[in-house]
Amino acid sequence: MEKLGVIIGIAVAVAIVIFLRDRHAAQGQRLRAAAIGLVVAGVAAAAAVYGLAAWREGGEETATLDQAIASARALPMVGVVLDDVPGSQGLLRAALKEEIRQPTAEGASRPLKLMRALRAEYVVPALMATDEASAAATIEARAALLKHLQLSDLVVCKEFALTGIQRSDKLDATGQKLLRDVLAALEKAYRSGRAAKAGGAPLPAVASDAEARALLAAAGFTPDDFDRLARLVRLSNEEACDIALKFNDAPAKLPADKRGLLMRYLLTVQ
Hints:
Elements: H1 2-21, H2 27-56, H3 61-73, H4 76-84, H5 88-101, H6 110-128, H7 132-152, H8 154-162, H9 173-199, H10 209-218, H11 223-230, H12 237-249, H13 256-266
Helix pairs in contact: 1-2, 1-8, 2-3, 2-6, 2-10, 3-5, 5-6, 6-9, 7-8, 7-9, 7-12, 7-13, 8-12, 10-13
């Protein structure tokens, strides 16, 4: 459970870090990049956290690789992707094996590059096609966890947004359940979109960058809010938790006919 918290926290942290990484990029482009990490970074994070941790524990090569793959598969999204994509488990095994033998000196590791490629080709199109109810459930699950942390532990709430929850085994029973709910909702959204694409029905619309910015403004997101994101590390625990929640809750502030557009945007990467 401890590693689950790190992984889902990484997903939130990546959203903020990517958003702030390129100050010269257009606001809408950075918003879309932030949405990448907020929802699907757990796929790549899982391979790194579980796989490389297993390697560091030592042991016979085949058994260690088997343990790494099994641990990664235990996470909903990772297991789903490995099951859905023929040959992907073998590719992940090979990437982990090569990474430990010759660690990547700069940039993303081999397992991360592989999972990002699988995400872009399989996860993202499915999330773009998910139904509105599944998209809403994913966002609501994330909000529920943030709100629980806001009330129970502001330090961990900010930690969740910045670096991931380092000791999720220390969460209370409610917090641990909410953490599992986030991952389960993400899997359901993925499965819904994948089924829709396979069925050949018309796919739902996804907001463009410009439309998403306008929708966020309509939901009450102000220039000051974007400034708070830029200063997230320096914010108080309470302020950091508040802005993370406001960003996540934006779709709920919109009229019913506009929510789906923004929700899918927040679940989507191109």
